[in-house]
Amino acid sequence: MLERGTGQPGAQAAAHAPATGRAPADWARLEAERGLGLYVPRGITLTRGEGAHVWDAEGRRYLDCTAAYGVASLGHCHPAVVEAISRQAATLIACSGSFGNDQRAQLYAEMAEILPPGLTRLFFCNSGAEANEAALKFARLTTGRHGVVAAMRGFHGRTAGALAATWEPKYREPFEPLLPGFKYIPYNDEAALEAAVTDEVGAVILEVIQGEGGVRPGAAEFLQAAQRLCRERGALLIADEVQSGFGRTGAFFACEGVSLQPDILTMAKGMASGFPMGAVALGERVIKPSPGQHGTTFGGAPLACAAARATLRVIKEERIPEQVARRSALFFERLRAIPSERIRDLRGRGFMIGIELTEPAAPYIAAAQARGLLALNAGANVIRLLPPLILTEDDIAFAVATLSEALCA
Ligand SMILES: Cc1ncc(COP(=O)(O)O)c(C=O)c1O
Fold it and tell me: Does residue 263 have a pLDDT over 60?
């Protein structure tokens, strides 16, 4: 096995090349020719993952502090998840919502144990955008109001409703007119929130920690004000925990850290360790929709539920949130000690970490990748780390040393 980031293309490539009959060099070309080019290419083709590491087609190993956008929460191919998916794939893959299913039923019960207080019902879907889309529909159904308050720098997905709640103009404007009635206030600005939640507003949708918008934690007072204003003025609070949920911030849900009790909580990413799955949890103030008012073909399928159940079991049994809280303190302490004048700010919670630079982050992310560390951006100037929650102290030491080299060069 090659050491992190030091490998050269060579004999190992064959070991990692799936038997497609084509050479690794063809893969990037095929993707470029046949895909839509919607994702900025990182220049490597990943073919294998295990734990916190992935390997490219040339056999180079990387510490994966992207976790596929925060999805591979237990690391890549966790044995418990692989076993659950394999067993369920040989048992029952598909089962529509009209029929009961053992996996789905048990997942409902197991989720009830970990959801923040007051959230009693669940809708299962397949992605974060879908979860937010459903949440907005449920809010409209309950309140009969069209207005929605969202935050500047907020990101909620790319389907039409979720996109209307997403602030970044370059994502949103080419597709307007989207759903009407959306207002954007500065995140953490209590006065702006107070002014925006009028009696036409049916929902306030907020990330508990903004991810895509630069890894910006919500202030407890601001989030609690949103909860209070929603209760007072007849609106519903939707907490988007698509990125921050399932242990990532050192608690099962980031809401816990700020004593927030939303009316609706959306989740996805880490929920099933990479198997596509999302969910919406609803509290007592939300009207239960009638049959047919919402639904999705694949939502709550047995295979996804089995993957989510295995993920939940490992998170609980191995006390992953507590472990994340402990190791994140070490991570932050070491990152803070990097002697680079390029670092303007370091922020986040748990394993949702943003390093804001005084200049564009892309060259430093590329330099880290060349040294065997995969990181993300969050906006132009922020390096974002969303590592698997199982990151060890050695992994943290490697990540910090590599970032330090890249940032101090
Ligand atoms: C906070 C938040 N909400 C929603 C989404 C959309 O999720 P998906 O890409 O699964 O549709 C994302 C994705 O990055 C997200 O970070």
Answer: yes
